[in-house]
Amino acid sequence: MIQLAYSLDTFYFLMTGALVMWMGAGFAMLEAGLVRSKNTVEILTKNIALYAVACLMYLIAGYNIMYGPGLSSFIPGLSFFLGAEHTADAILKSGGSITHSKMADFFFQVVFVATATSIVSGAVAERMKLWSFLAFAAVMSLVIYPVGGYWHWGGGFLKGLGFVDFAGSGVVHLCGASAALAGVLLLGARKGKYGPDGRAKAIPGSNLPLATLGTFILWLGWFGFNGGSELMVSNIKEANAVSMVFVNTNTAAAGGLVAALLLAQFWFGKADLTMALNGALAGLVAITADPLSPSPVVSTLIGVIAGLIVVASIIFIDKAKIDDPVGALSVHGVTGTFGLLAAGLTNPDGSVLVQLTGIGAIFVWTFAASFATWMVLKKTVGIRVSEEDELAGVDLAECGLEAYPEFTRD
């Protein structure tokens, strides 16, 4: 029985990890659809390259920083590369306490760090230098994300306080949004985004079918993101728990989409597709903090509230002259924060005060470390392309290619 359970849980870990990896395609398609055609190749290059960079940096030391023995509950340790896999004798002698392969655990965790870094990509789109972004992605995957992850999932002080973050509304999504905010503030808005009077101008994306496909892919991948975070599926209790996580994840997304679409119709007089897409993602981000404790009805309500929040947040951030082409700050940061607070109320062991502590710790650390990293890059190699290259499109300037060469570029 031990061998069967170990094999089943390892296989489940690997397959859900593959679903999370597939979310990289979702981010790439979503962002490619929401930027202008002249910036498509660069956004695609960033998304696939950051995945590779994140995998390598997390392999070198990120995973060990996050899950290795720490110097204290605040300060993680430092070691390099992965240790040996569990031996068959160790697995059998564990009496079932070793539930899955160490390599499967690494694979599942590495696709999470890539997700956090993908959040940054969309927020800084259309005006950032490719190699500066990839340099930041390396630091993010090697140090910034693992330290915050150590505080909770690695057994650090947030875990000791009883912080609730089942699959990463804070560890992943708030972290990614905090890093993105630091970059956006130093980078500045896209040329032409704000007029002489300070009013924001809409800059439509080039391919809404692609953005919609990306959202569907992300929605699908989220079943691996949340479902895999249950870590086991090899007994009745865990199988039922995984099923509840899947249902709650799905209903939160559905509630978020419908709520955002209705609010957009009421607010703008039109059924705005981009708001609907972000509403679904907002519901997914919010329920990620705890997709197991609430009932499906409560999970739907969490998604509904997140969908309403994200529409208002996107408008507010735009009016504040913080240029975020894909709404990443609102989807991942604002609704991620809401989801963590909601978990403090819906989880039997939750505490709003502890949740606020975790939110503050993750935001302050990630924002400060990211701001410092972006600043170093800005002062050395620069982070923004020239005005001429930005107006022409970063595809040709950074990659020498066009995504749609048969069409006239906008």
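That was protein one. Protein two is written in the same sequence-then-structure order:
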Amino acid sequence: MGDEGRKGDWRSAGAGGEALLQAMLDATSMLAGVVEPLDDDYRFVMANRGACEFYGSANGTLNGRTGRDLGVTAEQISGRLEVLRRVLRTGAPETIEYSFRFPSGRQGWFLGTFTPLAEAAGQVVFIIIDITQQHVAQVEAERQGARLTLALNATELGLWEYDVAADRVDWDARTRRQFGLPPEGDINYATYAAAVHVEDFPATRVAYEAALAGENDGHYVVEHRTTAGGDGGSAVWVRGASRVSFDSQGRPVHVIGTSQDISAQVAARERQDLLLAELNHRVKNNLAAVQAIASQTMRGAPDDPVAFRSAFDSRIQSLARGHDLLTRNVWEAADLRDVIEAALAPFAAEGFEIDGPDAPAPLGPEMAVNLVMVLNELATNAAKYGALSGAGRVSIVWGVHGERLALHWRERGGPPVTPPQRTGFGTRLTLSALQAYGGTVELVFPPEGAECRMTALLARR
């Protein structure tokens, strides 16, 4: 730019004006100077020490050099010209954040303010701050925030904070839902306390106050119900993990924590406890049943170890098949057809005629196991002394009447039957096993074959 172009600018004031402006620019540690746009480039009119060092030039040697002289790319020059011309056209300062790629390939981020120079046609003062570190920190913070959000969503954790002095709680949307609070509205400690189940709040408060006192370095974990379920809904269980922060005098100032809906876990624990209690009950019952089987079997064959072992093994296996059947059904119920199949498994299927409705006839666990043993005992006696000892057959017919099952065991075609002179194990088992759970038994011995009529309560569907 020639002398004519400089009339009216700061240089018309002579060396004193130039020295004053240079001193002002050098007073800042930021990149500062004066530039002017050309047709397809821009030129530094004046630059402070920081700008010279930024471009790797000695102090004072940047004046008069263009962007192209300094290795700035055409794209970067075009963007800079756009800003300079807009500022000169509007006459208003402009602050922008932009990236700059150095010739070495390093990427930097900068915050620049561009202001038209008063009484200097076509010249702009620039002040630029290197914000690369701040930008990297911001990007990292955003990345960490995204990771935190992903982790919270993956684990379904709620996040909250509490300002102790201000008594102000900040809950995210998930925590509000867990405690049954609306999406909007102020929350304080009293709001939180009212949202904890009244029976669980005392223990929760003790843990919180212990953390405020500095126990466990301010960490505490609590599990409690909330009021989110309402009077008619299922309880919402929450696990809260928190940490208290303290000031230099050891006073609690801030609490941050997470909350997680553990209702499903609590329900699973309760079910496991119930199952363990049920298992303990069944083990005791089974031991009693084995003891009774051994005692009664020994009574029937006191002087014949071989007969005792054979009968005892058969009855224990029958008990085991009943348990296998219930295990497959998670000890909830078993259908009558499966019970009959388990009971008669050791015997030839050709000897039985089985008839009943197609509809399921579910039996409770105890009734199912006992009926397996009863039917197995009847079949064993039929094989030894009754219809199955020859060419006879056994018919098993049942029907369902309301909540009760009626089953008829009938033997035909075997040797003539005479009523037993004493009550054997099979008879005692049949009577006691069914009657103990609301069933009835009628056992008769006509000459043409033994018959047994039984009823049992069905399991609730």
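The domain at 156-261 is CATH 3.30.450.20 (Beta-Lactamase). Keep this in mind for the problem set.
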